[in-house]
Amino acid sequence: MSNLPTLSTWALNIAPSPTLAVDAKAKSLIAAGEDVCGFAAGEPDFDTPVHIKEAAIKALQDGKTKYAPTPGIPPLRDAIAQKYTEFYQIPTKAAQVVVSPGGKFSCYLTILATCSAGDEVIIPAPFWVSYPEMVKLAGATPKQVLATDATGFKLTPAMLEAAITPRSKLLILNSPSNPTGAVYTPAELAALTAVAVKHNLYIMSDEIYEHLLYDGAKHVSPASFSAEARERTIIVSGFAKTFSMTGWRLGTIVAPAPIAKAVAELQSQMTSNATTFAQWGALAAYTEQAKTQAALDEMLIAFDRRRKFLHAELNKIPGINCLLSQGAFYLFPNISSFGLDDLKFCERLLDEHKVAAVHGSAFGAQGFMRISYATSDEILAKGVERLAKFCATL
Length: 394
Ligand SMILES: *Cc1c(COP(=O)(O)O)cnc(C)c1O
Prior knowledge:
Aspartate Aminotransferase, domain 2; seven-stranded mixed beta sheet; binds pyridoxal-5'-phosphate
């Protein structure tokens, strides 16, 4: 028996990412020779576009291997500022842009820059698994508000009003949503933003899936509604999902200048700049727009086809009810009619039928499961067939 001091409360209290855990278990089963249909991964099954890879390779060969300015290389910050100004009509200067080592870290920096001990953060559920844990690491208190399929997995202004207390500091929004794929309409988002303005909350708008939209859905940011909205909105995004660059670890933050400065100062002590040559690669996503658009279009056609297929097949299974989402690459079917705890459901689905999906309660929504359709059409077809077989035994 060793008698070492205890680990920190941060280490002891953190819940490891359940999505990464299920995906890791599926990958280790596959490595052991099992025929597993993996629906757990939160990443596109496409490769990074060639022109982006080539730009990073060139940067390495040109010796872009040293520290860069903490908030990012100037041409990339300029390109991002230009994107928000021109594409979204949100006037943005380069000084408002910070490039970070991943969208995940962008979220954490935003929470650290805005929240202290005692502050409450409103997190609409189903939520991305990392938000509550990041809030706890900042010493603040997560406050979950559940919006089920009854409201299209969307928070209403009344639900938001009811969750606000004098301690509320930050509202987290994520449209298009991971895990549900739900997309707020501009009117819905404007109404939520108005409540946040009225109660003087910051808004962290996680827009990492901004370009993965279907059925003509349109992305808007809370920052686009008014000057009052803009001065309190921190937009988080990144390269991982849109450009199939999950392993590059590059995220962005666009915020009012004082917040961007605070975020950059936090980052300067925690990681310094995001990987220098990776940033030069990412720059090509903007400087070679036509190639970028072609790669994105190819991905969107595949995702849309799979989304429709999966939605139709899921709803053919007696007992499953699934909304058709308009964004990201997930569906979030309701499996509550089987009377089985969703964690048990997903464990048995993996153990007995070799299908990996993540239980809804990991996202704060018991009775659901998340299926990622960022996988091949063949695996998708095989996986739903197995799921149907499993459901028939329940
Ligand atoms: C994937 C994801 C991110 C960030 O991903 P990174 O790989 O860290 O860039 C942020 N928010 C949500 C909701 C995501 O699904």
